[in-house]
Amino acid sequence: MFCCSGQDDSTKHKQQNNLSHTASNRSVVTQQPTSIKATISNNLSPQSTGVRSASHQQHQQRQQLQKKVQSRMSQHPRNKADVTIYEATDSSIDENQHKHDGATATVYEDSSKTDSQYDDADNEEEEEDADQDMDDYFDLTKLQPGQAHYPGSQWLLGPQPEHLKGRKCLILDLDETLVHSSFKFLRQADFVIPVDIDNQLHNVYVIKRPGVDEFMRRVGEIYEVVVFTASVSRYGDPLLDVLDTHKSIHHRLFRDSCFNYQNNYIKNLAQIGRPLSDIIILDNSPASYLFHPQHAIPISSWFSDAHDNELLDIMPFLEDLAKDNVEDIGVVLDINI
């Protein structure tokens, strides 16, 4: 989560407490679960030279979008300095069960050495080695061993299809963002899919989030749409076959494409194979976009509220972000710049 700039210390402390409270309410599933959730500034175009000036119309567009960003972030404040990792593991689908301890968003911790341990030459050599190690560690574009990716490529996606050229890339989470699923019978289920677990079929009852059909139809018209879920494909594929009535989903990525960080499944946007400036992720779990919070639009977890309107409420905001005059998503969404 982010803390918006200008907030006082008490507000930041309150937000951190809210995040910790949310994390404590998430539990690791060790028996057959009821949920299929798999584990897991404000500039439109930064000017590098300062020579080019925006027109009056561009200035108005920038102000309008800035207000929408601030409004959206105030509803779902995020603190990118301390994001607690919390995910519930579906132990009946994931053969390798993991318990996830809480962790902060720090991805590298440098161990410094005292000057008395080395002479000046040794210190200089040690610092160069440390810098090299840090560079290697922070290269998030590198695939991990066994990580699924596009054949013959170092990216998760292949080249952008011609008919999608020029579109920004929208990454959508599945469970508790677009749908809610359960092994237990749900009377209000929109559809049921069979899932093979240990050579035995189990029915999974799926409820669609209100407005998801219209939402998917619209984003499919203006974005290159990727559903990226930490669920396994034998659950996600049949579900998306039913959900994607408008054929709006251009790519599907599953658990085997996630970046494993401290036994957590992270959706590493640096590996997608699209410019980061063009990538947006919509996900209910801040842990999923741990490495790139400035590219995320937060959305609340959804389970069954029939009066929920968040998908449709977000749509005008996404329509603005899809416009050509938005040159860098990260600059627009990172309101702390």
Automatic annotation (TrEMBL):
The lineage of its organism: Eukaryota, Fungi, Dikarya, Ascomycota, Saccharomycotina. This is FCP1 homology domain-containing protein. PANTHER family: DULLARD PROTEIN PHOSPHATASE. Gene3D superfamilies: HAD superfamily/HAD-like (3.40.50.1000). Pfam families: NIF. Keywords: Hydrolase, Protein phosphatase. The keyword Hydrolase applies. Residues 117-132 have a biased composition (Acidic residues). The keyword Zinc-finger does not apply. Residues 1-132 are annotated as: Disordered. Residues 163-321 form the FCP1 homology domain. It comes from the Eukaryota. Residues 55-72 have a biased composition (Low complexity). GO terms for biological process: cellular response to amino acid starvation; cellular response to heat; negative regulation of TORC1 signaling; positive regulation of transcription by RNA polymerase II; response to salt stress. GO terms for molecular function: phosphoprotein phosphatase activity. Residues 16-54 have a biased composition (Polar residues).
